[in-house]
Each structure stands twice: as structure tokens, then as C-alpha cells.
Amino acid sequence: MESNAKHSAITVAMARRQKTGSYALILRSRHWGRLQIGKLGLLTLRPGYYIYVGSAFGPGGIPARTAHHQRVQACPHWHIDYLRRQTELLAVWYSFDTVKREHRWADVLAGEESCRLAMPRFGASDCHCPGHLFYSVHAPQITDFERRLRRMDREHPLLYLAICNTADAGLPGKKRRRRRPASALSQAA
Ligand SMILES: [Zn+2]
């Protein structure tokens, strides 16, 4: 157990240096709509919260990927880029790691009563998950999610929370910059 903990600490330290890890975007939609997601098909957009899981193992790791998701992309590349154009990015949950855990995260969200798969195959073109995008009527809680992750894997690295500015959420006519505390979301672990 002790050697496991030591190994885990070294792994997290390495991942921190390289800034690699897994993340979940917490997005909010305020309206209904129909949204074309590239070649995947039409998504029925509902008022509520969307949770998208991914991992960042390329150059720049989590910070670079988070910066990408904070901007609305003129030329969408990933499925999430299409959804991002119609939603606000409220927060990012992330952990530093040398192991990809996005599929495990998707698995945990799929088992949550308050969540449901938002669209089959979304963000899951290269894996066997049913999808990497989930929908919830209520604001998802990082503490609940972390508890479930740790129940499955006691060595799971800590989760962190980044609150995002919602000013550039891509909503028409929204020019004023303001910070929304997203009070329904929990504090950083
Ligand atoms: Zn997957």
C-alpha cells in the first residue's frame, strides 16, 4: 500500500511537470435547439448542463486544451467544438496523470443517476465508450464525481476545479465581460 502511494505520488509529479491528464468540461445551455455535430448528426440541445470528458496528452497538456475550449472555434475540429458554439463553459474539472482516464470518467458519469448520455458516439470516435458527452438538468458536483472515481480506484489522482469566465461563451449579443462564480459547483478538491 505504501509503495503504491509512493508510486502514485511520483506519477502525479511527472504528470504535473508535463501537465498531462484528464478533464471534464462543465457547459451550460440556456435554450432549446438543434445542433449539427459535424458528420455525427443532429443533437437536440436542452436547457441544462452538459459534461464532456477528454484527456490532454499533447504539447501544453491540460492548460493548452483548456485554453482551446475557452475559445469558440471558427472552424470546429472536434465534436465538442460544435457544442461549444452554443453553450457557456462554466468550469473545468481536471487531474494530472500519466495515464488516460477519460474512458473511466465517462463510465462513472454513465452510472450517475442524475446524468444521461447526451448523444451516442459524441467524442468517442476512437474508443468503445457509448459516448463522452452527458446531460444533467442540475449542476453537476465535483465532490460527488470524485467520490465515485475514488470508490473505483483509491489511487486516483486528486481532482482540481477551474472556474471559467463565461464572457466569450459565443452567445449572440453578449459583449460585457463578467465573472460568474458558478456557485452551484463545488470548491476545488
Ligand atoms: Zn471512451
Would you mind describing this structure in some detail?
This protein has one domain (about 1-165). The strands form two sheets. A six-stranded antiparallel β-sheet has the order 6-7-4-1-5-8. The chain is globular and about 50 Å long. The chain is an alpha+beta fold and about 190 residues long. It is built from five helices and eight strands. Helices cover about 30% and strands about 25% of the residues. Zinc ion (ZN) binds near residues 103, 106, 124, 127 and 132. The site of zinc ion has 7 residues, from helix 4.
Structure summarized in a few sentences:
With 189 residues, the protein is an alpha+beta fold. It has 5 helices and 8 strands; from the N terminus they run αββββααβαββαβ.
Features:
single chain, 189 residues, 28% helix, disordered C terminus
- What about the largest sheet? 6 strands, antiparallel
Largest beta sheet: what is the strand line-up? Answer: 6-7-4-1-5-8
Helical/strand content category: alpha+beta
Total number of strands: 8
